[in-house]
Design a protein that fits this description.
With about 190 residues, this protein is mainly α. It has helices at about 5-20, 25-45, 50, 60-80, 90-105, 110-130, 150-160, 170-180. The longest helix is centred in the middle third of the chain and has 22 residues, at about 60-80.
Length: about 190
């Protein structure tokens, strides 16, 4: 179904309708929704998939998707659901994670998946380290420095005194470009 002209046009039309409504969704999300809807119509009516396209309305689907996205945003902001706790800008550990991206990109030969895994693991470890005081499995795991988070932040700041530069998008982008790789939209 996904390789048909009708499917590709349906995705493009729905994305255009969403853009008019000021809602941004990933094309893959829209494609999955369209595929499920067309398959459901085909099954429920007992017709072929190609005949189910006559029931497709990009504008109506975009309305529903936009309504769902807004409802999710409203419910999430009210309860703070779906929002990860963010460290303050200028946090030494966050700067260390950001600074590691260009190095990881160079080390992996431009493997974006490898870079993302590296960042995710470092971010997870940073969050874990921050909460180690309450982790019974971490007793004695940090060596002589122990679990003193403030001491760790001071150590990182001493190792990388100019952490503020990693919070400047242009500096970070230049560092990524210096590796010989760039991330560009297709």
């Amino acid at each position: 179904m996904r390789n048909t002209k009708a499917f590709k046009e349906a995705v493009a039309q729905t994305l255009a309708e969403l853009a008019r409504k000021g809602v941004t969704l990933a094309p893959a999300t829209v494609a999955d929704t369209i595929e499920k809807n067309i398959s459901a119509v085909s099954e429920q009516l007992g017709i072929q998939v190609r005949s189910a396209w006559r029931y497709f309305d990009a504008s109506a689907l975009a309305d529903r998707l936009a309504q769902n996205a807004r409802a999710f945003e409203e419910s999430s902001t009210e309860k703070d659901v779906g929002h990860a706790p963010m460290p303050p800008v200028g946090n030494p550990e966050l700067a260390l994670v950001l600074a590691g991206v260009p190095d990881s990109l160079a080390q992996t030969g431009g493997d974006l998946y490898g870079v993302i895994v590296n960042v995710a693991v470092n971010a997870w470890m940073a969050g874990h380290i921050h909460g180690e005081d309450g982790c019974t499995g971490c007793d004695g795991s940090r060596g002589p420095a122990g679990h003193d988070w403030e001491a760790r932040m001071r150590t990182i700041t001493e190792m990388q005194p100019d952490i503020a530069k990693w919070f400047d998008r242009d500096v970070w982008t230049a560092a990524v470009n210096d590796t010989g790789y760039t991330v560009t939209r297709r």
